[in-house]
Amino acid sequence: MFDIPKIWEEFRESSDFVYLRQSNHVDHYLICFLKSITDINVLNEQILDFISKNAGLLFDELFEELPIAEKELSSDWDEIRNKLLLGYVAIQQAPTAETILLNASSSKGRTVSKPEIEFNVEGSKEALVESLDINLNLIRKRLPVASLRIKELHVGDVSKSRVAICYIEDITNEQYIQTCLQRIGDIQFDTVTDITVIQQIMEDNSNSIFPQMLGTERTDRIVWGLTLGQVCIVVDGSPNAILGPVTFQHFFASYEDYYLPWLIGSIIRMIRFTSVMFSILASSVYVAVLTYHGHGISNAFLPTIIASRINVPFPPVVEVLIMELAIELLREAGARLPSKIGQTIGIVGGIVLGTAAVQASLTSNFLLIIVALSAMASFTTPVFRMSNTIRILRFPFILFAQLWGLLGIFMCSIIVVTHLLRLTSLGMPYLVPFYPLRLKSLTDTIIRPPYSKFHQRPGFYRTKNPARFDKRKSNLKNDIDE
């Protein structure tokens, strides 16, 4: 018999650390593992059972014969410790440091479910989960091509989080691949628990409120982005992935648009763009018109506005800010509470507060309608991070409208557009193909074209293979008997 080596002492304080002694006529083994992250079925049925039935094998023969796909031989204690923390089983030969490492990690977690944020009526119902291996399986299943490359890194000095970078080698521009590898490899942070941490660190301008990487939980959207020439980044423990580089219009295009007929999809997309503009500008225009440009109000609306505001003691900007903050309060309360209670709070709270605010003369009926429509319009943004940006943007526009009226709204618009012109995503201009203008790449922006027009990948991705299919054959619809 032999004592446990000193190198295992740091693990003995953990109650989930297990070590077993095994010996035959020649060698003595020490089998160590962490039961909390080790698959007990694999351990019992494929490792311990095999060792007990083949007790006469030498250590080297045992390594060759063990029926485990992922195994290696090592005497480096740092590597042994790191593998043990990932769910490996270590079989150490005594009294040497030679150790067999067998992958028996447990993959406990929730099963694949429907998307919670990017919900759709038509199309796929598969969403990413917290397991990196399952997520990569979902992507591989939809892209069964040999050119799909997956580069795995470990990020975080403490968490050692697994990060996978996915791309299609014969399509994706090499510059984007190297940029992602370099930025993720340079991350100096102790704990990376979610993809949003990596997204904030590796974005081109971390001080901007506009997201420069597209977060998604949908596997079909990931596959579509990979075939366009984007890079996908997935983190173990996060049910979301990020795609890059992206452009501004990507955040207002729902992937469900591609499941609908192109005319319907285009109309819905244009409604979405219009709703976003209304959500940003409606309240600020109300403040500007009532504060500086009352003479521009039509005679048909003037009596209604005067009657609704005659008992309101606040100036328009205070009235608007009260209502906007009340809407944000209801939105946050509904989001943080359990789903059924949150829905009730949102509906009942909105009705009660709106009615009470009008009866107490804190706001006008006219503004209540505008703020309610603005709030609903902001929900049309399919990407959650951009939806938050739209919510925040309303407030500077309101303040500029109070200071300089319509001129202030125009000045604030110039500031926002100038900021967008300077933004990049992995080095690619944020407003392309509008600026710099790329006429051939304007196809799938505001209007969703028919599939026969998707014969070329967007030129601004600078892909290795720009052609998707032969344009000459795209409109051929031969009869079934031909």
UniProtKB/TrEMBL annotation:
Q: Which GO terms describe its biological process?
A: spore germination
Keyword terms of this UniProt record: Membrane, Transmembrane, Transmembrane helix
User: Which sequence ranges form a coiled-coil region, renumbered to this chain?
Assistant: none
Q: Which Pfam families match?
A: GerA
Task: Provide a GO CC annotation, any one.
Answer: membrane
**Keyword Membrane in annotation:** yes
**InterPro entries reported in the protein's UniProt record:** Spore_Ger, UPF0353/GerABKA_families
Residues spanning the membrane: 273-292, 342-360, 366-385, 397-421
Q: Does the keyword Transcription apply?
A: no
Which family would the database say this protein is a member of?
Belongs to the GerABKA family.
Protein known as: Spore germination protein
